[in-house]
Design brief:
Elements (H helix, E strand, L loop, with lengths): L6 H11 L2 E5 L13 E3 L14 H19 L8 H14 L1 H5 L2 H7 L4 H8 L10
Antiparallel strand pairs: 1-2
Helix pairs in contact: 1-3, 2-3, 5-6
Length: about 130
Amino acid sequence: MGKTLSATGLKLIQSFEGLRLVAYPDPGSADGSGEPYTIGWGHCGGVRPGDSVTPAEATQMLLQDVASAEDAVNELAVPISQNVFDALVSFTFNVGVGNLQTSSLWRRLSAAEDPVEVLSQELPRWNKGQRQ
């Protein structure tokens, strides 16, 4: 059995995402349509304009959403600390499993390079969004 996101990791994701209890359009949508709509702590599957959630529902959705990111990071064949695991789950939650697995970050970690050095060099390369 692999690692799971720690409480600290969960708080990290929540600090980046922010809690929104009413659905809102994605400000970074490529075509300007606002799709996909997002709710809670960054959940976007099946969200429609006007949807709303409670804080508890938003947290439950986040925990479900990070499960695939946890599974993907657990495929890494080299040992990593809980802090590195949490950072990688947060990263994967945002960019997607496919982007993680095809990234130079993943290749370098798989080659057993120092995880702290890899993260400090590779994560800034992915900072493409603009905070609203």
